[in-house]
Amino acid sequence: MIEQVLQTLPQVLIDGLALGAVYAIVALGYTMVYGILELINFAHGEIFMTGAFVGTAILLTFSGLGWMASMPAILALLLVLIVTSVATGLLGMGIERVAYRPLRNAPKLITLITAIGISFLLQDIVRFITELKNGNYILTGPSLFSKQIGVKASAISSVFNDASVKSSFFIVLILAVIMMVALDFFVNKTKWGMAMRAVAQDRETAALMTVNVNKVIALTFFIGSALGGATGVLFAVQYGTIDPYIGFILGLKAFTAAVLGGIGNIRGAMFGGIMIGLLEMFAAANLPVVSHGILGAEYKDVFAFAILIIVLIFKPEGLFGKVSVEKV
Amino acid sequence: MVLKKTFSILATTTLAVGLLAGCSGGQKEQNASNGGGGGNGGGNVIKIATQTPLSGGSATLGESIKLGAQLALEEQKANFEKLGFKLELVPYDDQGDPKKGVANAQLIGADKQILGVVGHLNSGVAIPSSEIYEKYSIPMVSPANTATEVTDRGLKTVNRICARDDFQGPAGAKFAIEKLGAKKIFIIQDKTAYGSGLAEAFKKGAEDLGAQIVGFEGITIGEKDFNGVLNQVLAKKPDLVYFGGLYTEGGLLIKQARDKGINVPIMGGDGLDSSTLVQIAGDAVKNTYMTSAAGLTTATDAGKQFAEKYKQKFGKEIESYSAYGYDSMGVLLKGIEEAIKANGNKLPTRQQAAEGVRKVQDYQGVVTKVSFDEKGDNKYAKIYIYKFDEAKYPAKLEDEVSKQ
């Protein structure tokens, strides 16, 4: 039994990390907005989805114009990432301005419902546009970085099987790490980051200290949404096919990751995301082996959420919540 | 006072008499058109309805069934004129919506000249609508409804010429084991009624034929990452992977499996039958098999001729179910013709028409031969097996498996 688990371990770790990195960056968006407004921005999963669609649309346009052949794929991807994150960042700011700011002093529940409404709206707008252009709302982008790289895990120890990695895995992982490190630096080391932390701690007092609260909140939405949109592009590159409903399940899991890490805490969200991704992949690959076929791979989410419940029972603030003072 | 009372009694009586008269009038009318009063006036018209989606997402398929049926009806017109009847087609649009289907069924029931229905495209619409047909005893011949429940309710009026869902799994298993030589099979299903039902049926069929099932796992609809399950597949090293589910998940699963170096054949049901599957999976779709209740019309000479006639008349290429619409109408008219003859060349009642249709044996259609059994299933219904050799839709017809 242990032998079997070990055999698949290298591949499970690789797949889990790729999925976990995506969860982690989407979780950042939830956690940032919660930290500053105490609002669960349920539309964030849909911003991620919109990013995936915008990115794929740009990539398709590029390859339609024949530009893909004339520049290195990585350059094209970076270009797409930048354009997409600016677009979704502005979208996030717009949503905040139109749907959340007028309700900032209303009860929390009202904004929550508005967020759910926005997410339905985004789903259907994207579906409508895609169907109009494509005739079908399931979109498949050009395949980039699909080269397979063999990892000779068996060379390290004979208990492991060899694993294989798509080259997009490295791109996703590296870009995800860059984004997270950059965000961490921005929040902790810059003036604007300080302002964000100040607003998160106490909005009124920060306002008295000449922090422009509206601007800071808009900036938070911009950064969170830009990261979400960029992750959408990475997701589309890694998995190839997207539809307007990918944001729902993924958003839910990313939100879980944010809670697991301690909502409002940036490093916690990163850790929670990676952890949920690894747990999910591990459970999907090994549950039937460990339980002798009683529990199938379809119980992977149950397994991941059971861990969440256990963590929250013993540490209701999440793994990193509150203990570390910094909050965004 | 007295005057007022008398007046009200008078009014009530008039109303009651009027109502009764109305009722009995209706009764008479019904008798006239139902019972063999065929000789006079409008009694000579036989209308056949089609009920398929003519608008909305599956309008292409619904329209093709209607056009196929229309072609068959027009070819039979002369034949029926000799018998002294005029054939008319009445197309209804069910919009792929059960509520609309049932509302249309009520209209069809109320039009006494309609003697039969060709439809539907969706099993979900056919099932409630056929309850209404049964109430009015209108025979229905379905070109495309594969759900088992369509005929399993034992309704006298419901017939179909395509195969049943619970035959698809065993037929696929037979092909996988006998033709592809699969011994270790890994089954993945999407936990929906359709997907897990298909996978269970396949599993049973495969086990009966002596194959070993090395895994039976579920995935969640809407997810995009199936690497977890595929890692299990990788560890178990099966020589065939079966997927019970739809093309969205199927396409991704195929793509991710090939990415992982799982190069064994992958097989699925008619849920994979879509050009989107090829779009999603791309080149990875090669070496994928799927079972379908819809045959390749152009595989036979009769089918090719039909495709030409269809193109000439409507200026369109045939769709997978066009010929099924044509054959459904053919069977229906054949049954009604028999009923007319049995009734001494007079207009049969709806019950007689329904009985006539159920009795049809060995009718040779364009895509399929038709004999109805006691439940209304077609004894000659086949499952067709398609293979993707290249990233192109539609797939190539590889084999067919029949019940006997």
Structure class of chain B: alpha/beta
- The name of the CATH superfamily of the largest domain in chain B reads Response regulator
- CATH topology type of the largest domain in chain B: Rossmann fold
How many strands of chain A?
4
Radius of gyration of chain A: 20 Å
- CATH architecture descriptor name of the largest domain in chain B: 3-Layer(aba) Sandwich
Q: How is the largest sheet of chain A built, in terms of strand order?
A: 1-4
- Mean pLDDT score of chain A: 85
Q: What's the story with the biggest beta sheet of chain A?
A: 2 strands, antiparallel
Tally of alpha and pi helices of chain B: 13
Percent in strands of chain A: under 5%
Q: What is the number of beta strands of chain B?
A: 14
**CATH C-level category of chain A:** Mainly Alpha
Which runs of chain B of at least 5 residues are low in confidence (pLDDT < 50)? 20-41
Q: For the residues shown, what is the average pLDDT of chain B?
A: 85
Structural class of chain A: mainly alpha
CATH second-level architecture of chain A: Orthogonal Bundle
Task: Estimate the helix proportion of chain A, in percent.
Answer: over 70%
Query: What proportion of the residues of chain B form beta strands (DSSP E)?
Result: 15-25%
Query: What is CATH's topology name of chain A?
Result: ABC transporter involved in vitamin B12 uptake, BtuC
Oligomer: heterodimer
